[in-house]
Amino acid sequence: QVQLVESGGGLVQAGDSLRLACAASGRTFSYWSMGWFRQAPGKAREFAAAITWNGTRTGYADSVKGRFTISRDNAKNMVYLKMNSLEPEDTAVYYCAARGRRLFDNNWYARADEYDLWGQGTQVTVSS
């Protein structure tokens, strides 16, 4: 059974950078599409970025496009979210998600209900 554990969150100032990491256990991780979502206090969970199983295709929310980069290292069972030029509006709990219902999927997904497994989240706080 695959489990996801996020790390790398913290308190930073506007304009700073952070790299979030998602460690996955389980042999089939490298066959799955993956995503990053975030949830700010009092708001619904929203899509941030996604990547196909082999990393050849990525997708981003308009709010993070050009500032965030998703990547993965299947040999290490890791997915990353590099966040540059952080803004106070980026403050949220960030969640890693895995889509295990279809292997070797060449699509990325922006809807939360497309994902089957979630991590516990990591807090990112950006001060102005």
Number of strands: 11
> What share of the residues lie within helices?
under 10%
What distance separates the N and C termini?
Answer: 41 Å
Main structural class: mainly beta
Q: Show unreliable segments.
A: none
Strand content: over 45%
Task: Please provide the ordered H/E string of secondary-structure elements.
Answer: EEEEEEEEEEE
> How confident overall, as mean pLDDT?
96
Mind describing the biggest β-sheet? 7 strands, mixed
So what's the overall shape? globular
Nearest-angstrom radius of gyration? 14 Å
Element layout with pairings:
Layout: E1 3-7, E2 10-13, E3 18-25, E4 33-39, E5 46-51, E6 58-60, E7 68-73, E8 78-83, E9 92-99, E10 117-118, E11 122-127
Parallel strand pairs: 2-11
Antiparallel strand pairs: 1-3, 3-8, 4-5, 4-9, 5-6, 7-8, 9-10, 9-11
Detailed description of the structure:
The protein is mainly beta and 128 residues long. It has no helices and eleven strands. The chain has strands at 3-7, 10-13, 18-25, 33-39, 46-51, 58-60, 68-73, 78-83, 92-99, 117-118, 122-127. Strands 2, 4, 5, 6, 9, 10 and 11 form a seven-stranded mixed sheet that branches. It has a four-stranded antiparallel sheet with strand order 1-3-8-7, with no helix packed on it. β5 and β6 form a beta hairpin. The radius of gyration is 14 Å and the shape is globular. The N and C termini lie far apart (41 Å).
